[in-house]
Amino acid sequence: MPDMRLIVAGAGGRMGRTLIQAIAATEGIVLGGAIEAPGSAVIGRDSGELAGLGANGVAISSDVAALLKQADGLIDFTIPAATLAFAEHTARAGVVHVIGTTGFSREDEALLAQSATRAMIVKSGNMSLGVNLLAALVKQVARTLDEDFDIEIVEMHHNKKIDAPSGTALMFGRAAAEGRGIDLNARSVRSRDGHTGARKAGDIGFAALRGGTVVGDHSVIFAGSAERIELVHKAEDRMIFARGALKAALWARGQKAGLYSMADVLGLKDV
């Protein structure tokens, strides 16, 4: 099978540059294009030079439709509005779309599901192997422990992150809710301020911290009477997300159109 040609969306950002570096170091994948928003200051620049690799001959463009004609897929860690636009293009082209973007509304999720009827979409709040293994463990622990154990999810990210709670925190919340057999939307507590009263049994709490250059720290706390279980993941380099995204792209290449997650990619769906 020929090398998979992937387009990197948001190529001028930190994650985009990391993805370009990861593609250069991965056998079986080549960079098929680099995309940025129209008007970006990096349009026309060599994507390899921007990523610190030296010139690779792939100039940053804003014309995703043209690039998709010669590509097998697109990797997208951008913002919801851009991802929805990209999803229309990948659906028309019938190619792989790996989505690491977070902060979608319910309406956005419905639109992505529609696009997935024509494209192979792998979407995850976090692409790292460790986080997805931990999510499976969170589900098992939540299933095992009853409501005598309160669930709290604490996350911290860099000061440039624009959504809260993080996509990873919400992934852990969904895993815990599934383990408990409850609706996360009905039982999540996103903030506490003032005289809130006692904590309600069965709720899943979230706390979001922002500061500095933290790549991503997450803790899922099961707090019972006189004991506490903490499941923790700390991301130290964005490369773990890039490698996971490339693994997802290669896996999705052989799948039929549909909406998948990293649990599908890693064989954790039924865990």
Salient structural properties:
alpha/beta; seven-stranded parallel sheet; five-stranded mixed sheet; 10 helices; elongated
Explained architecture:
This protein is 35% helix and 24% strand. The longest helix has 16 residues, at 129-144. It is α/β, with parallel strands linked by helices and 271 residues long.
- Range of strand content: 15-25%
What is the ordering of alpha helices and beta strands? EHEHEHEHEHEHEHHEEEEHEH
Mean pLDDT: 94
Number of helices: 10
Q: Give the radius of gyration.
A: 19 Å
Distance between the termini: 31 Å
Structural class: alpha/beta
Uncertain segments are none
Helix content: 25-40%
Spatial order of the strands in the main sheet? Answer: 3-2-1-4-5-6-12
Global outline: elongated
Q: What is shown here, in short?
A:
With 271 residues, the chain is of the alpha/beta class.
Topology:
Blueprint: E1 4-9, H1 14-24, E2 29-35, H2 47-50, E3 60-61, H3 64-68, E4 73-76, H4 80-93, E5 96-99, H5 106-115, E6 120-123, H6 129-144, E7 150-157, H7 167-180, H8 184-187, E8 188-189, E9 204-210, E10 216-224, E11 227-235, H9 239-252, E12 258-260, H10 262-265
Parallel strand pairs: 1-2, 1-4, 2-3, 4-5, 5-6, 6-12, 7-9, 8-9
Antiparallel strand pairs: 7-10, 10-11
Helix pairs in contact: 1-9, 4-5, 6-7
